[in-house]
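Predict structure. Input: G-protein coupled receptors family 1 profile domain-containing protein, 323 residues.
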Amino acid sequence: MNLTEVNQTDHCLQFSCPERSVSPFYVFLCLCAAITVLLTVCGNMLIIISVCHFKQLHTPTNMLILSLAVSDFLVGLFVMPFHLSRMIESCWISGPTACLFYIFISFFVTSISIYNVALIAVDRYVAIFNPFLYVEKVSVSNMCVVILAMWFLLFSYNSALLYSNGNTGPITCPQQCFTIIHEIWSLVDLVFVFVVPCSAIILFYALVFVIARKHATAIREINVQSKGSKSMADSMKSERKAAKVLSILVIVFLACLIPYFVNTLITDPVQRKSFRNVVTLVYLNSTINPVIYALFYPWFRKCLKIMFTLQIFRPDSALVNVH
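Output follows.
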């Protein structure tokens, strides 16, 4: 997805890097940028360690959460330092090779994040629509195959996007880094990276909401029947709770993502000072996600406690009950 500045070649001469004095405000901005990057990297690393280490968390849904955390971790490690540096310095100071890498990785990891959230929406729909079929058919190994296929597909797509762009590929002006996307590729990118996955997210969560309301009525009826049906009620409650928590993650994600696309569709991003701000909002979603997990997932809080108290180094720590 095009999250770098879109420009024209003759705009190169319009950019210049002003001399930056080391003022207290400049130091404050650098400190805030460093803290944001650190929170993003460390927060998502804790999620990755939790899901990978604790056997009880090896579920299909958590594999999607792991995939999202890996993409958010890459955003914090490779994208945000360059982007926030350019926000503060008002120019590119990292050279042409880093510019090319930044453009590709920003396209790639952002598209991965969007499709991860779309898969989470599909996963929750299938789980809440037919929880017994979901348990029987959707395994951790199957989900891992789907996730790896998604990463490979999007890696190939973004490589083709930049390679096929021809003379309008990544360009480095003196002290600037941007790319020009051909109009046809821009339309393809808009449909493939935004319209299709976001439509799926909205559609499947609307269906989840409708089914959840039906389940609420069914649970009340099951509760007055024999204890033999109690397991069915518990399963339905569990899936509704999981869908509710993940819907918060999806809503926050869309709130961070949609302003960027609205901004780019309204007018030329080069002419809007708000362009970099909405791009920053997209990247900050990678910082917000671990906070959502910490607030709404008891298992993540318990994992944090085990890690911070160094109990994770015990031989049997992977088998600890974190639910």
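The mean pLDDT is 79.
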